Amino acid sequence: MTRRPAHDGGARRQTGREAGTRTYPRALPIVPVRARGLTVEGADGRRYLDCLSGGGTLPLGHNHPVVLEAIRTVLDSGAPLHAPDLASPVRDAFVDELLGTLPPALARHARVRFCGPGEADAVATAVTLVRAATGRTGIVRYAEGMSDAALTGVGADLGTDTGPDAGPRARPAGVLLAPVSEEGVVPVPDDRTRRVRRLTAERSVPLIADETGTGVGRTGAYWAVDHAGIVPEVMVLSKAVGGSLPLSVVVHHEDLAPARRGSRPGAFSGNHLALAAGTATLAHVRAHRLAAHADALGSGMLRRLRELAAAHPCVGAVRGRGLMLGIEFVGAGGAGAHAPGVAAAVQRACLRRGLIVDAGGRPAHVVRLLPPLTTTEEQAAAVLDRLADAVESVARGGSGPASPEPRPR
């Protein structure tokens, strides 16, 4: 009896066996079987340029040689693949490389805490940390490019008088700041970031920088807080920090260390494959100045995206930082509410042209581009050619002819 390939009908079987809440399988009906760098090959033999990058977990793209070599070295060494919170050469190398990338003022007083592998685990760990350290419970979330009025509200929550009759409110345990909102790709302006830092420092409220999606060079600086030149008390790291494997870390100032010891480690806080992949990725981004490359390449891509916006009324704001880019789609003629239907149509049209992009925002009206930091200018041009063709096709009300499939690089 001939056995069918493992990928034969995989997308169809997934629909019948897995929960239907996942959005990627519905928007991207691809069964990937091979991948390298920016290129993914599906089971149907088609090749795609992948600007999703695993939601930002692949800063070096798919199967980068330094990551594969780091993983093979651990596998061949005979070391345990998993040793929760126990000292090991692999763990020590990761912490050493990580500390070398942090803002020096934090690195000199830093403590590193491993937690569950997901980004939500890291955020929860950071919140628990500042609550225990301050004895307070409230958390102020600052994100989505808050307005001046909203910033005043944050100041009020931190104990700032907002008027002649307004007394100070109770201080929160911490302020959680995302330098760039991932859903809609909305950067917080640097002056706002510095103002929040100043408010929190004046009132001894720990500032938590959520770098789960922005760290390791993604925004054109090694850490997104570097753009504003601030030093938070806590940094939440995930996605790219594991070099494609699940890993989350909380880095915090030593003054926030709990007085009572003995908390149990997370079940997956010591995975040696993720630590090795993370070390190799952090070092490669640093040594090859990939953050600066992302800054320069992203600036060029933004310029061309703004030209696209000027030519098509359905394209609203174009924004982003480094290689974290977003194209907002609006109603007919450029007026009215956000248009998630247009963004979804553009995503489908991109896929037909051999380009994988994401759709985010609330509602999902933003097409997101997260190409690997290793993307070349030639590859970026190919990405933008296919995106422009997709937008023009949707603006005309059709799918248009598909562009030639991208070849592997």
From TrEMBL:
- Can you tell me where the transmembrane regions are? none
Q: Does the keyword Iron-sulfur apply?
A: no
Top-level division of the source organism's lineage:
Bacteria
Describe which pathway this protein belongs to, using the record's wording.
Amine and polyamine biosynthesis; ectoine biosynthesis; L-ectoine from L-aspartate 4-semialdehyde: step 1/3
One Pfam family matching this protein = Aminotran_3
**Amino acid composition bias (Basic and acidic residues), ranges on this chain:** 1-20
What enzyme class is recorded for this protein?
A: transferase
Tell me which SUPFAM superfamilies the record gives: PLP-dependent transferases
Q: Look up the record and name the cofactor or cofactors this protein needs.
A: pyridoxal 5'-phosphate
Query: What keywords sit in the KW lines?
Result: Aminotransferase, Pyridoxal phosphate, Transferase
For this UniProt entry, the molecular function terms from Gene Ontology, in alphabetical order, are: diaminobutyrate-2-oxoglutarate transaminase activity
Region feature (Disordered): 1-26
E.C. number(s) listed in UniProt = 2.6.1.76
The answer on whether this UniProt entry bears the keyword Transferase reads yes
Q: Which family does it belong to?
A: Belongs to the class-III pyridoxal-phosphate-dependent aminotransferase family.
What name appears for this protein in its UniProt entry? Diaminobutyrate--2-oxoglutarate transaminase
- Per the UniProt record, the source organism is Streptomyces griseoviridis
Give the taxonomic lineage as stored in the record.
Bacteria, Bacillati, Actinomycetota, Actinomycetes, Kitasatosporales
